[in-house]
């Protein structure tokens, strides 16, 4: 079972669905379109409130002219060892200025959620049993130190929470 989680808790009746050959959006739902499909639809219409699914090999910069028309961007994590969606999220938030919902879909594991939050992802499509249990208990793993600034500031504030510094030569 897949549930949508935000820092405020689990979301009921989320309208967004990733369409496949077997699954199609109903009238109460909204489709998350592939990048090429979104661009084609946006070029043919003046629709707003659209959703797009960015896959790891997609060039997220192609979304730039359409960002104001998007309600949600979902970034795909097809496997725990494929981190390209972290880069997509960071580019969307920091360079392209995207401010609407940014969702992680796919292999969302509890250990990665704090890192996903740091790059600006604010909703999560979670199906992993351990992640669902820990999120329902509001138990996120803590990461007390980080090496670089990100979209979201650490508890210590802006900048680096910890940095190795070379000792001065004697």
Characterization of this structure:
This protein has one domain: TIM Barrel. It is 21% helix and 22% strand. The chain has 4 helices and 8 strands. An 8-stranded mixed β-sheet has the order 2-1-8-7-6-5-4-3. Helix 3 links the parallel strand 7 (101-106) and strand 8. The mean pLDDT is 87.
CATH C-level class is: Alpha Beta
CATH topology term: TIM Barrel
**What's the average pLDDT?**
87
End-to-end gap: 61 Å
| CATH structural architecture | Alpha-Beta Barrel
Query: How much of the polypeptide forms β-strand, as a percent range?
Result: 15-25%
Count of DSSP H/I helices: 4
| Proportion of helical residues | 10-25%
Number of structural domains: 1
Spans with pLDDT under 50 lasting ≥5 residues?
none
Protein name: DUF934 domain-containing protein
Pfam family, one: DUF934
Summarize the model shown.
With 170 residues, this protein is an alpha/beta fold. The protein has four helices and eight strands, in the order E-E-E-E-H-E-E-H-E-H-E-H.
Question: What are its keywords?
Answer:
8 strands, 170 residues, 4 helices, TIM Barrel
Question: Could you give the topology of this structure?
Answer:
Elements: E1 3-6, E2 9-11, E3 16-18, E4 30-34, H1 35-44, E5 50-54, E6 70-77, H2 84-95, E7 101-106, H3 113-118, E8 123-126, H4 129-136
Parallel strand pairs: 3-4, 4-5, 5-6, 6-7, 7-8
Antiparallel strand pairs: 1-2, 1-8
Protein name: DUF934 domain-containing protein
Pfam family, one: DUF934
InterPro entries: UCP030820
